[in-house]
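Re-running the complex after MR caught last week's input typo. The corrected sequence lines follow. Everything else is unchanged.
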Amino acid sequence: MSRKPRRKKKRPPRQAAAAPPSRLTSTARTLRKRGGVATIAGGVMLLAGLLLVAALVLSDNPDPEDKGSGADPGIAATPTIPAPDTRHMEAPVRRRLELARSGVERKPNSGAAWGAYGAICDAHSLSECAEVCYTRAIALDPQDYRWFYLLAFVSELRGASPDQVAARYEEASRLEPRLPTTFYRLGEALTRAGRLDEASAAYGRAIGIDPKLAVAHRGLGQVALARGDAQAAVTSLERAVALGADRNAATLASLAQAQMRLGNVVVAEANAARVAGVSADLPVPDPVRARIREMNVSSAKSATRAVRMIQAGRYDAALEQMRIVEESRPDEPSTHYRIGLCLARLGQLNEALPRLERAAELAPDNEVVQRELERVRGLVGG
Amino acid sequence: MIRVSRPKLAVIAICLAPLLSGCESTDDPAATAALSDTAWLVDVTAASGLDFTYRSGATGNLHMPEIMGAGVAFIDYDSDGDLDIYATNGNASPATPSRGGDLGNRLYRNDDGWFTDVTAESGLGDTGYGMGVAVGDYDNDGDSDLYVTNFGDDRLYRNDGGRFVDVTAEAGIVAPGWSASAVWCDYDRDGRLDLYVTRYVEYRADKNCLDSAGRPAYCGPLEFPPVSDLLFHNLGEGRFRDVSAIAGMADVRAAGLGVVCEDLDDDGWPDFYVANDAYSNQLWLNRGDGTFVDRGVVLGVAFNVHGEPEAGMGVVAADFDNDLRPDLFVTHLAAETNTYYKNLGEGRGFTDATGQVGLAASSMALTGFGTVAFDVELDGDLDLAVVNGRVKRTDPRADAGVGEPWSWFAEPNLFYLNEGGNLFRTAAAETAPFVQPVEITRGLALGDYDADGDQDLLVGNIEGPLRLYRNDAPRSGRWIVLRLSDPGGNSAAIGARVTVEAGGMRQMRTVTRGYSYLSSGDTALHVGIGEAAFAAVIVRWPDGASESFEGIAADTETTLIRGNGISIR
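Corrected-run output:
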């Protein structure tokens, strides 16, 4: 075989992997210019506005008030309303999406309607749809920090650059500077972007607002570790541990790594040994994302919620969740058992009995079902 | 000192002419202009006679193994000096795993760049539900043997002069369940290649999973119990012993997918690094007594910068920043970065420097699997290729090269150019034929199939074509290709560490076939040396002894034979 001819070629100009200015970054810059409005309005007005928007946007239904009706006419043309592929979805999910979408169709200039549709898409991991909707919500309703916050979160899942994500969290934090979680998430994005000094500052802002925010102390420690300052890392990570992260794998793992760098091998090994047996999660107080999660109406998520509610003794609410589950899983013994259990606990024994009998029929060997069935039979018979 | 392999003589003759005359090549401006429009990686699949599609046996029920396979390998199975190709295949539905049927693996013989299907005569048409492949000369007879990982029992094939014999049972290999990547490596430095096999989960076909919108979806690894990996010690005489328990691996259950064997703590003993899916990664440090200890957490490679486990798929160990220490690069799920662990050396472990080196942004949207490090334009630093394809369903992509349901998972690939060791930039324009196809890509292997001095790429797709990419990148300087021969040890000197000094640069490479995901590459080391006419090379052989070789001529392939250099104490 002959060798391929080779020619020297001038290398293409090399450039740093900087992200091109995004539309949103431009938006953010524009908003910064307008930022005086919010400042002038003052904290009281801002708080009132935020509470109002919280009630409007994060309710399951778009608000009848068209908050975006006075939006800048110069904003970009309305994008096509996203229509995710719903063919294989469960019926409750499909209906929820269709309802939210129809809200946008009715009020295409409402930031609230777009945001609500985005939230429903977001809740069901339809990130592309959510990204389009939140972007539009920002264009129509640019003073609401949540659209920036949610867009940042979703766009990160969609593969936006950490710099873009950070710009969105920055804008959210400018509009609502009292929420420590925004600064925490900003710190994470900046860390991912490799902007460690800024990440450190963002975690510091979060801690300034909530000095007991363990995740922010952990983040600060991890940034210090990434910068090569193992001693500072240990200080911050130990603070996180003292604030409740003593059973958090990520904190202990980073602490172990920092101790190792300092040559404290025994301590490092001890912390590393604890990693496997503890939780991966450290609670991030995030009311915005929590509300989004609650909007998921898939049978799996509804069933999980129902179990949690049963454990908490909230049988009415659990029953509501199980009715959603039943639409998609009508023949599962767990569906009938949980509905029967809720009905029985609510005193509706006659309705509970056939449910438990059906569950026993579908799962004849399940002792838990049998026990509850016998208990309810006894109550009905008595 | 130096033995030049016979099939390369023609190449070397061409290369030596300008070298001996002391002249640089005179560029024809017109030709240069034409070449500047040429893609760096050219898809030569059809032109080379390759026509193969990995079939998953999917029946619509979304069984997890369907979305995980498609390992590939370069292997010189007939010892004729050029690289042949091996590709795994699926089988009937993984819901009912069984051997037999038409969907066997495939072997293609390379005849001057044209590939012919020689599966039937080779005995390599394994009909298990194929996952991956690991090539290695375990019996030190000079030819390449082959280990096939399956969803189902694995197989070991001994190469008997180009015909392969299934010796799994007589070798004592027992690897049931679901295996993924495997790597050959002489971990005890006794001169025989041992075998590390990652294993995934205890899959159950009756488990159905849904995505967040309630749509049927492939289950994730956390839906099933994870499985511990296997380490087989080569006893010689064609026999292996499962030493997983003694060595320490049997105590750890994680969903293993990718593995490399490399001396990561620079103590002269090869270690194993395992990329686990949704579990912390393991860094099995070799204690030198047949046992290993996992130091992944304390050395900073178990988790990402946030201390979180990620969905580890493929992995490569290589010295990206030319500090003579191997770094690690691991591919991950969408919504996670692929992660670059920089080796800090001196016992300080590693640091996740993904963001700092520019590798974070581009990988967030994509699910990475196979990955290789090689110097595409031979400029003296290692570049990165990553192949992608989701495991979580999304809306079908309109630009996908496959129809539904595969278009739910198809994604484009990534290619990064190393900008001096501390910064990578995507090179989509230069490598368009490689990055643009939107497919479900898994396997990725390196090898110079056309023997022109640079490394080419072999790509395995699920329900898509096996693809071969010829490297036509314009070279930034001169180059050497090194093969190693250790007659008293493992024949190809797997595990040898090579330091090349030339053109004002020092570069470190390790001889290995095992990296990426489910795949196996060639052992040759391809090194860009700038404008230097000669290179000096130091080899640390697998048993720890070192030798130096001087005067390695540029633009040639050279075989370094142990004992022919100058011994270094």
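None of the earlier attempt is carried over here. Confidence is low (pLDDT under 50) at residues 1-36 of chain B. Residues 9-21 of chain B form the longest helix (13 residues).
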